[in-house]
Amino acid sequence: MLLKLFLTVEVHISFQPEVLFNLFSQGITNSLYTALFVLIPTIILIVIFSKNFNALKPSKFELFLEMFIGGLFGLVESIMGEKNALKYFSFLLTFFVFILVSNWFPLLPGISSIGLVGEEEHTEETSVEYTASSNSEIIENTDGGAVLSETATVEEEVEPTFGCLLKGKCYLTTSGITTGSFTHMFRAPTADLSAGIALALISVLVTNFIGFKTNKLAYLSKYINFNGPINFVVGILELISEIGKIVSFSFRLFGNIFAGEVLLVVITAISFGVATLPFLGLELFVGVIQALVFFMLTAVFINLAIEHHHS
Fold it and tell me: How far from chain centre, in Å, is Cα 7?
């Protein structure tokens, strides 16, 4: 029996998140599950750390957080001034922390390997070889004569092809190696377009709410202005630009994070993990940049909404 080993690499890329389970007839995707999985522990850790901070004898970690948050506050202060920065910084920081943790969590080693293996009908492929042989012998009959007897036998040799290994559909589970469909447990929430759209809607709606609360009805003249044909057209363009903000926010965040995950999967597959580390560092950097971009642009748009005056 000749045994041949083949090494195959399969890369599965899906824009649509995978459904883990149904809750009240509503499918819970792995991106939504990951969002809740990282959000709740993050809130708990922030509450615990904030209660144990010592202003008189701060630890090195507290000093680092103070410098980091102070730097972010300085950026917001340079955009909208100290008064407004103090007022809206907590909202902006929440955006930054959630997006950063969502970008970074799926990059942890082993996270992408955790999932659910579903049962499916499995047929093991085999190749069968038939070998025919014959045996001849002389048998003496009752009359004293000799009879030539020939018996033919067919031997069957089964050569396993290890279909599960060749197809790359073997999974190591708590019950050992098994086969079936695999559903990833975790996926970066920001690698899901629906999550990007939700964050963009929150940013744009809160920005307009702050603008309306600050400037009252005068803020509506930004979109509806009948003081002349030019002002009317400008108002329509401003309304279209708000829709453009949602598209820009969501696709920028989704495109960068999703493309980064695809890059890591492809590089890991073709290099068998040898060249993954440099690209992993790159994706950590991209995760910070995307969170910072969302943070800064939201601050700029809030400042523009606050400073809007009826003309």
Answer: 27
